[in-house]
Amino acid sequence: MPQFDQFSFFNQVSFFLFFFFNFYFFITYYFLPKIAFNIKFRKKFIIFKINKQKNLNLEIKNKKLLYTDLLKNFSNYYELTINENINNYNNYKNECLLKNSLIKLIYIEKIRNLFSKKFIISKKYLLNI
C-alpha cells in the first residue's frame, strides 16, 4: 500500500472515506436487509415445520390409537360372533341328535314290530340295528 505523502494526503483520505462510506451504506441498505429477511424467514420456516411435524405426530398417534381400538373392537366382535356361532351349532347339533335319535328309535321300533309280525328274527339281529 502506498504511503501517505504531504501533497496527496487529502485526496487519498477523501477517496478512502468516500469509497468506504459508499461500501458501508451499500452493504447496510442492500445486503443486510436481505440477510436479515432470510434469517427471519428461516426461523419462521423452521418453527412452522416443527409445529407441522408435531401436528403430524399427534395425528399419527391418534390414528394409531383409533386403529388399535378398532382392532380391539373388531376382535371382540369377531370372538363374540364365533362363540355365538359355536353355541348355535352345538345347540343345533344337540337338537338334531336328539331328533335323529328319537326318529331312529321310532324306526327301530316300527321295524321290530314289522319283523316280529311277518318274520322270525333273532334278538341279536334286532339289537344290532
TrEMBL record:
<keyword id="KW-0472">Membrane</keyword>
<protein>
    <submittedName>
        <fullName>ATP synthase F0 subunit 8</fullName>
    </submittedName>
</protein>
<keyword id="KW-1133">Transmembrane helix</keyword>
<feature type="transmembrane region" description="Helical">
    <location>
        <begin position="12"/>
        <end position="32"/>
    </location>
</feature>
<keyword id="KW-0066">ATP synthesis</keyword>
<keyword id="KW-0812">Transmembrane</keyword>
<dbReference type="Pfam" id="PF02326">
    <property type="entry name" value="YMF19"/>
</dbReference>
<keyword id="KW-0496">Mitochondrion</keyword>
<dbReference type="InterPro" id="IPR003319">
    <property type="entry name" value="YMF19-like_N"/>
</dbReference>
<feature type="domain" description="ATP synthase YMF19-like N-terminal">
    <location>
        <begin position="2"/>
        <end position="75"/>
    </location>
</feature>
<dbReference type="GO" id="GO:0031966">
    <property type="term" value="C:mitochondrial membrane"/>
</dbReference>
<dbReference type="GO" id="GO:0006754">
    <property type="term" value="P:ATP biosynthetic process"/>
</dbReference>
